[in-house]
TrEMBL record:
GO BP annotations listed: regulation of angiogenesis
Coiled coil (UniProt feature): none
Record-annotated active site: C155, H190, S207
A Pfam family assignment: Vasohibin
Annotated protein name in UniProt: Vasohibin-1
GO cellular component, one term: cytoplasm
Protein's organism: Callipepla squamata
Comp. bias regions, Basic and acidic residues: 323-337
Length: 351
């Protein structure tokens, strides 16, 4: 089934007026759980390929039908491409490899070039199914598959790929940053991978808009980075409504921890400008403290030297990581996490 985006109303769905508010709240909460981005066609549904690769015939045909519906040229564009016998061969990007002496900023630029070379996926069908509740090791296996297939990706896939390609940069802190914006009656969602190297913040990712993806690690504070994204959204006529910040991701590709996507949830409608800045800096301090206490992203080498027979030793379980004592939601308290255990019902995301 197609996954509806951020547009529409309960009345349009045929729901009674009395249930409109509840339906809207439920829909909004469901969308809040997923991070995807769309600046051009908010509210337009898209599909997720749940059958793996190679793409099976039903999914393939469904994708082309969807392309015909959403493309301005309709069925003609699908017929023109599918009927062509001399389509150019698409080059496969090479996964970046680094010398030990290569500086981290140069490595980040190379990783971003690779992500960009894969290109943004405009087909209306996401090729890789990503469940945020999966343990890190499973997501890293999926990222490895992305490098083998070299297919176009969306922003959540780019975040997983960015984590995979920077796992060996143990002096680099990585954490997810999600944005919710409003434009022309619709809500839009986007996610990037925040990075911190040597006390300077930046970001990796992919987007239809150049200014909403890569940020070199030159920002002195986390708030400077977020304000730069906010200004980029403003130039796109979008109003930033909410920012969600996760904690640092482990560098151990075999970790069974889940990524903490939403440690701090900042609602800009409920925060003054100064309070927003303070909450961002509080989150930055929380990340530094967590790393300082040894509960942040471990070095794979050090972690395995401690106890080779038990690679999970010293790692916090998902329940402990999300405990009240460890979490410090800022600006808005998050309800008790009902997805502490892996979600077995499937993962849906929205454009």
């Amino acid at each position: 089934m197609p996954l509806p985006g951020g547009g529409g109303t309960a009345a349009a769905a045929g729901l009674p007026a009395s249930g409109e508010a509840a339906a809207a709240a439920a829909r909004e909460e469901e969308q809040e759980e997923e991070g995807e981005e769309d600046l051009r066609d908010g509210g337009v549904p898209f599909f997720v390929n749940r059958g793996g690769l190679p793409v099976d015939e039903p999914t393939w045909e469904r994708m082309w039908r969807h392309v015909a519906r959403i493309h301005p040229d309709g069925e003609r564009v699908a017929e023109r491409i599918r009927g062509a016998a001399d389509l150019p061969k698409i080059p496969i990007p090479s996964v970046p490899a680094f010398q030990p002496s290569t500086p981290i900023p140069e490595r980040l630029e190379a990783v971003q070039r690779y992500i960009r070379e894969l290109q943004y996926n405009h087909t209306g069908t996401q090729f890789f199914e990503i469940k945020k509740s999966r343990p890190l090791t499973g997501l890293m296996d999926l990222a490895k598959e992305m490098t083998k297939e070299a297919l176009p990706i969306k922003c959540l896939e780019a975040v997983i790929l960015g984590i995979y390609l920077t796992n060996n940069m143990t002096t680099l802190d990585r954490f997810p940053i999600s944005f919710k914006t409003h434009f022309s009656g619709n809500y839009f969602r986007h996610i990037v991978l925040g990075v911190n190297f040597g006390g300077r913040y930046g970001a990796l990712g992919i987007s239809r808009r150049e200014e909403l993806m890569y940020k070199a690690p030159v920002f002195r504070t986390l708030s400077e980075l977020i304000f730069d994204f906010e200004e980029a959204y403003r130039r796109c006529w979008h109003t930033l409504k909410k920012v969600k910040l996760g904690h640092c991701v482990s560098h151990d590709p075999h970790s069974v921890e889940q990524i903490e996507w939403k440690h701090s949830i900042l609602d800009l409608d409920k925060l003054s400008r100064e309070d927003f800045r303070k909450e961002l800096e509080r989150h930055a301090r929380d990340m530094r403290l967590k790393i300082g206490k040894g509960t942040g992203p471990p070095s794979p080498t050090k972690d395995r030297k401690k106890d080779i027979s038990s690679p999970q030793r010293g790692q916090a379980s998902p329940h402990r990581r999300n405990s009240r004592g460890d979490r410090r939601p800022s600006g808005e308290k998050k309800p008790a996490d009902s997805k502490a255990m892996p979600d077995l019902n499937g993962y849906q995301i929205r454009v």
